[in-house]
Specification:
This protein is an all-alpha fold. It is built from ten helices and no strands.
Amino acid sequence: SIIFFYSLVNMYWIYPYYLASKTGALAPNYEFTQENLDLLSRESNLLNSIRVMAYWINSDVVKPYEHSLFFQVWMYASFVVPVVAFSSLVIKKSIKYSIIFSGIALFAIFLAMGTQAPFNYYNALVAVPGLSKFAWLFRDPDKLTFFIAFAYSFLIGIFSYKFLSFIRKIRNNDKKKLTIAGTFLFL
């Protein structure tokens, strides 16, 4: 049911692909070039992809005040989600699911990097005859970041459940438990 609901929420990009497959035209009617892919991947380096911010940090549109305190706080806060998500790997009781969703997140980070990725997957897709029809699906690396958010949401859920279960086991200090749990949930 979770996967169904997540797919339903993402229908804004799944439904057009479904309609295109019904008409028999699986590829768009425009030419897609390496220059377009480079342009769409211009901010998709590793750190921006991990933080799911490659599209939002567009140096041509927004010039952040890099010396302001707000920018520094925002920069450090942008690492909280990936750090908490991958912290689920240190929990031994649910390591199987953590490894599965961490693998999904890492693969999605690789795809979201586009031409900034260490291995140029787009050229490999175009070279394989059967897959070349579907290479256009990978034309905009930022569209693939929903896989990262999907994996992060499960990883954060796993970590939060185990962390809050651990906090509940602390003895004799209800105020301390409430403060730690409240701070974690606020974060």
